[in-house]
Amino acid sequence: MTFEYTRLFNFAEGVFRAMGCSPDDARQATETLLSADLRGVDSHGVARLSGYVRLWEAKRINATPRIGVVHETPSTAVIDGDAGLGLVVAPRAMRLAIEKAQVAGTGWVAVRNSNHFGIAGYHAMLALPHDMIGIALTNASPLVAPTYSLERLLGTNPISVAVPAGEQPPFVLDMATTTAAQGKMEILERKGLPAPAGWIQDRDGNASTNPTETRNGGALIPLGGETGSHKGYGLGATVDILSAVLSGANYGPWVPPFVAFLQPPADPVGQGIGHFFGVMRVDAFRPAAEFKVHMDNWIETFRGAKAVPNQQVLIPGDPERRMTERRLTEGIPLLQKVVDDLTGLGEKFGVKL
Amino acid sequence: MTFEYTRLFNFAEGVFRAMGCSPDDARQATETLLSADLRGVDSHGVARLSGYVRLWEAKRINATPRIGVVHETPSTAVIDGDAGLGLVVAPRAMRLAIEKAQVAGTGWVAVRNSNHFGIAGYHAMLALPHDMIGIALTNASPLVAPTYSLERLLGTNPISVAVPAGEQPPFVLDMATTTAAQGKMEILERKGLPAPAGWIQDRDGNASTNPTETRNGGALIPLGGETGSHKGYGLGATVDILSAVLSGANYGPWVPPFVAFLQPPADPVGQGIGHFFGVMRVDAFRPAAEFKVHMDNWIETFRGAKAVPNQQVLIPGDPERRMTERRLTEGIPLLQKVVDDLTGLGEKFGVKL
Predict the structure, then answer these.
(1) Which of A5, A180, B215, B344 has most Cβ atoms within 10 angstroms of its Cβ?
(2) Which domain holds residue A213?
(3) Where is there biased composition of kind Polar residues (chains A, B) (predicted)?
(4) Coil/strand/helix, residue B36
């Protein structure tokens, strides 16, 4: 089944309003959440709405947070999200980073006491209209084993970097620091397919092709797989440290799970989950017009490179932008299971899908 | 053959002095260069000294550069390296980033018109004694094909992040954004061993196990290999953009080669090669003592995790630190080929090895 963007928007906004979010926060949360559906990251979009609701019901998400700055310098700040929706806390942090960049050239905001923020790319891209480069990182529930580890100590800890261009659309990298995100394992499971080598390990640390290993004590493998997972581990670790050790959030195995049926660790080392945002004004380095000419040249050179037959070199963000164009015109497809879930949610809150 | 650190230091310093470097620059260049030998990155150390000399002879390295700030804001700057040794230009840029961080909380310095800067980790680590987090990136000669590309458009573009801790030694990530660095291919070639899957492709973009493919139009594969190279490509691209599009250096296929026998492209899009440095004061986010307690806890938790038999979870920087301790006491081993090369260099410049 396919749904118009505005229909899903009105529905999700209604649910967030019913949770008690302010009109502004409900609109922001919806825009952040649905950016995943538009960009084709179906695992992070409206399919997760009931997950956020369950966390709110478990009193682990605060619908009316007092989001506050707890420390700052000319180019930095730490924000306490007051257990609010990451979908709302993160754009607030990015706006502060943008304000700081306007004055100091760059802005760097670490966030503690937050929750899942949707897709990292949405937040990084908030910098683009200001001719700024945006960076967004977050830690997440531990599902990933560092190289040699039998324990799951890291989340899929994504890195997003958005860079403005001139005539060309922007460069938008948005990647998990694992070989494959957990969502891809769920797709393989539904299709009855094995996982490729280097994606997942069993509880004893052996290579596995069973995409459901994480339910049996197994773990996702960091980016780099069999011969290079120490690099993905290092990147995921860096994301964890900047997002949580720097902000005062929970890190490593202490990051609270996204699912409401799993309890957060009883001995937290910080508050909530952590994010880290960076914004750099392009003209804090060179004139924006000059930068854009070269960024266009960069993009055209890479996109025009000689490629293997029937393929083209893609610029990070190309597939997601094309998907957005398509879904804004053709609608957003949802699995029946998701439609049923949303229908139930609508009935509970008196919001029509 | 094994050489004491001070012996190699005096030799390399003498060669840099003979090139015309000032006493300060010769000392700095030597310290930067030999940090690679100490940390076990043999491909980037004193074995490359004659490579720098040949670039100087070809007038592509300026031994007496006027390194200048061409643009700045409270938290940013762009430095023109005046074609100087990257070994000297890069620490200068890091010092400026540290000064900016002292005032603005963070400092971000993009560098153009530079040359190869040795190992990224050396520069990132300069932040550590100041209780700051250091970041160092650089672009490099194109040897890497983006996903689907037959053309080599990126270098091995490393990322280094150094984070101070308290009782524990610091976290020091220093990684190429390819599955394996070119130096590993050279080691495989010497040993007559094949390259693992996902490391290298032939000139037609096919998977290859021949470590010499880059001499026949083949290319290194970005981190992530067969099923995830788009992520390594995205990271390498980000390094290229921040180091060069932002600074005004050459990017992508225009990056000048490190070897003097290959000419730089005749149609440069910028000046020299580019670097990007970041420094963040820890206490621009939270009190340094508090941060260090949690950083120690992070390190101890990861290092103490249950591991596969006969292995331990390593903290990025552990192997290099142990290597440094060993080589400072036992000396630095050099291949006979390198010793012969250095001896020849010494005779030419009247410097005794």
Answers:
(1) A180
(2) 180-220
(3) 206-215
(4) helix
